[in-house]
Design goal:
By secondary structure, this protein is mostly loops. Helix content is 6%, strand content 0%. The chain contains one helix and no strands. InterPro entries: RHNO1. It holds the Pfam family RHINO. It comes from Pongo abelii (Sumatran orangutan). This is RHNO1 isoform 10.
Length: 64
């Protein structure tokens, strides 16, 4: 005979109770809209010398 299925015991944790509604509605919709980025930061950049930036990297595969 096959072994009996174990009974699933009810959860001992209390359900979560929310005191406030979500500000922008539910977050589980399939087509969620993204908010525009409002806090962008401009930083100075330097040109990269590609011949020296990866000179220390040794790949694990052959590129030929």
């Amino acid at each position: 005979m096959p072994p009996r299925k174990k009974r699933r015991q009810p959860s001992q944790k209390a359900p979560l109770l929310f005191h406030q509604q979500p500000l922008e509605g539910p977050k589980h919709s399939c087509a969620s809209t993204q908010l525009p980025i409002t806090h962008t930061r401009q930083v100075p950049s330097k040109p990269i010398d590609h011949s020296t930036i990866t000179s220390w990297v040794s790949p694990d595969f052959d590129t030929t």
